[in-house]
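Dear U.,

Please find below the material for section 3 of the report. The protein was modelled together with flavin-adenine dinucleotide; I have listed the sequence and SMILES used, followed by the predicted complex structure.
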Amino acid sequence: MKFMPNISDEKLAKKVGRVLKKFPYKIEFHVKDNIVFLYGKVPKYEDYLEIGFAIGEIKGVEGVVNKIEWEGMPKEKIEAKNKWRKEVFEKMKDRIIGEFDVVIIGAGVTGAMIARELAKYELKIAVVEKESDVSLGASRANNGMIHPGIAPEPGTLKAKLNPIGNKMYDKICEELGVRFKRVGSLWLITTRTLEKYKFLIGPIRTFVAKYILPWLIKRRAKSRGIPVKIIRNKKRILEMEPNVTRRVLAAVYVPTTGILDPYELVIALIENAVENGVKLFLETEVVGFLKENNVIKGVVTTKGTLLTRFVINAAGVYADEIAELAGAREYTIHPRKGTIILFDKSLQGYIRHCVAELIFPRPKRTKGGGINPTIHGNIMWGPTAIEVPDKEDTSVTKEELQLIFERFSPVLPRFPKNRIIRYFAGVRPATFTEDFIIRPAKWVKGFIHVAGIQSPGLAAAPAIAQLVIEILKKEGLELKPKSNFNPYRRRIKAFYEMSLEEINEKIKENPDWGTIICVCEGVTKAEIIEAIRSGARSIDAIKRRTRAGMGRCQGSKCILKIAEILAKELGIPMGKVLKEGPGTELFKGKVKS
Ligand SMILES: Cc1cc2nc3c(=O)[nH]c(=O)nc-3n(C[C@H](O)[C@H](O)[C@H](O)COP(=O)(O)OP(=O)(O)OC[C@H]3O[C@@H](n4cnc5c(N)ncnc54)[C@H](O)[C@@H]3O)c2cc1C
């Protein structure tokens, strides 16, 4: 949350009125406790966005609930969903399935981190997740970068929590057996960096780029306690990253940037939380709330009702709808899609750091993406930042891929782009105030917003969890530390990480360690069976836990073998094997195997 001047609704309303006059549409509004509600009709989705942004930028606005309609808005779909929620609510509200101190909605990195943090106390905690597995929202499709915390705008909650979260990762990953590496970032200042500032003539532009710009970055980093090093020696930069553009003038090196596998992290957090008593409800969608005098009493889901005093709304792109169901809507989420291109592992070492070329002026409302190695040795380019009306829109277009290639090819001019193995998109849960919204609801007691968790949400997650604990304490939750909390999670070493001796030992114990199913990633039958026995119920759930199918052939050689193992382990016919959740059967009709 940006620094909020103490401003009355009356004054804020005047400001909002002035801003709305700039738009040629009849927009009604009202302001309540610094939240602005907008109503009206506009021709295009872009108009809806622009009005929302303009209001969100007003100092003192703590949330924008944008109820403006645009032509082509899928109203029927929204109404059908609301009708369905009401029907399920009526059916389920009296079917009590448990009583908890805190119910967390959403098993992405935010919900998982909060769950594990709360598991340290004598509390009854539940996590409810609508999907068939954890980490299936934004936490599945991101760059896995633990940003250092320099990029967020000063005065925002992002700027406060990102550097704190970053520092906490070594301990968390060590305890959970999650692979984590501080590879560092190298931000390149090139002849393109200030190219658009035509009024700066040649040598002045170079001077500003080489001396003023890195100094400004260092000053901001210093104010946040983040170490950086300015490198103005081109030879040194090319020693650090031999494949980057020769047009580089200087670089800012940030050693604290880290990389990890985001779903490995979420799975580990949830496993550890569950081991410490947290109850996980999968395929359990929240449809409403029980309240008495605007105090939360329960969460109604598709499986029944969980009685509780506190609700944590960590529902990602759906956080606004969840808040609405509780009568606590203080913001609108406008989905912002990000596409990423993934390159083959054979390029491991082509870059050593997370590399980005600084280009000014920076595109509004995005850090601009970059190039980063993954913890498994692949290389990623992206993401883009594209506003989409549909929260489930993870499509990837040719134009987006072209955009990524055009943006990043000049950074690595000789990069073998033909070694692309996959592209995918994730959706960021952006709000119009463009900051995390982490606070108790203004009008409903017991409801805590953890919304607008867009980038750097992964990096900030440990600090977000800490902040939520503080809020819960202030709201009256008694926090008695649990004496038997076990912070450690046992991780079985992957086959590809083992020495020959270790492999031989394993094969002696269980011959399945000698059967390689996924050749690209070196995943054995034993690992796949272990993943199924610890909860994986679909091809993709196995993939996220073992990496089977993540390699160059993207599963074309092993998917059938994995399906056979899954069918055998679960005792189901091949026709019932799922790619992901319900309705994603891998095969149609009879399967001969
Ligand atoms: C392309 C891309 C790249 C990114 N790269 C980075 C990066 O490198 N570093 C970084 O720090 N951040 C990055 N981010 C941001 C980061 O991914 C997010 O901030 C983070 O994953 C948000 O996690 P979350 O748990 O809040 O949301 P999510 O992961 O979306 O989880 C929300 C969960 O709530 C569940 N849910 C929703 N509605 C209901 C309901 N009614 N009932 C029950 N459950 C429900 C959903 O199914 C989902 O699992 C990136 C984001 C994108 C899209």
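For the text of the report, you could mention the following: The mean pLDDT is 96.

Regards,
Y.
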